[in-house]
Write a structure and sequence with these properties.
Elements lengths: L2 E4 L2 E7 L1 H18 L5 E7 L3 H8 L6 E12 L6 E6 L10 E8 L3 H12 L5 E8 L14 E5 L5 E2 L15 E4 L1
Parallel strand pairs: 3-4, 3-6, 6-7, 7-8
Antiparallel strand pairs: 1-2, 2-10, 4-5, 9-10
Length: 179
């Protein structure tokens, strides 16, 4: 099995590139079927989802647009602690159907925050496409159900295909897991 080192950590290949791209093709087929009658806005979450979003979106053949947003963290007041703000979403999404594109649903805090923000902005139906899903870590099973999941994985740290370790490893074309 292929092993690599990033900074101080070793990783082993877990999902080969060909398997990743084949699965993304399957997700695109599902989305094309589900949205054949309606328009959608795809919303990629930067930075991690950029490769998944590109690979997925080039296979989408319905009437649609894509935007990218970022979660900016900054220190708030002492009472609020770290505040995370959704930046980059400047258009009116009132009543629009949204497909959120995420790299990995881990605890689900990110998705929960994004969905909350989209609701505040009166979006229509929101669906979630995530390349990876860690069900053992996900804390919002009662309220959020990822609609299009590439791979369910165990609760291990992974890199590659857009996912990073301290900023490195996003360019790896396969998914690697920490050993
Ligand atoms: P959540 O808010 O806990 O669901 O985590 C979501 C974000 O944490 C993702 O968008 C990733 O940027 C990052 N993340 C979670 N798990 C991993 C991992 O295994 N490798 C790299 N990044 C991760
Ligand atoms: Mg990240």
């Amino acid at each position: 099995m292929k092993e690599i080192k990033i900074l101080d950590k070793n990783f082993r290949e877990m999902i080969p590139e060909s398997v990743v791209t084949k699965r993304i093709g399957e997700l695109a087929v599902m989305i094309n079927n589900d949205y054949s009658e309606k328009e959608a806005i795809f919303l990629g979450i930067l930075d991690g989802a950029f490769l998944f979003a590109a690979e997925l979106y080039k296979r989408i053949d319905i009437l649609s647009r894509i935007s990218f947003v970022k979660l900016a963290s900054y220190q708030g007041t002492r009472t609020t602690g770290t505040v995370r703000e959704l930046i980059g979403l400047n258009e009116d999404i009132t009543g629009k159907e949204i497909v959120v594109i995420e790299d990995v649903a881990d605890t689900g805090h990110t998705l929960n925050m994004i969905i909350g923000e989209l609701r505040k902005r009166k979006a229509g139906k929101v669906r979630i496409a995530t390349l990876l899903y860690k069900p053992d870590s996900f804390q919002y099973k009662d309220t959020i159900k990822p609609d299009y999941v590439g791979f369910e994985i165990d609760n291990n740290f992974v890199v590659g295909y857009g996912l990073d370790y301290n900023g490195y490893g996003r360019n790896l074309p396969a998914i690697y897991t920490l050993i």
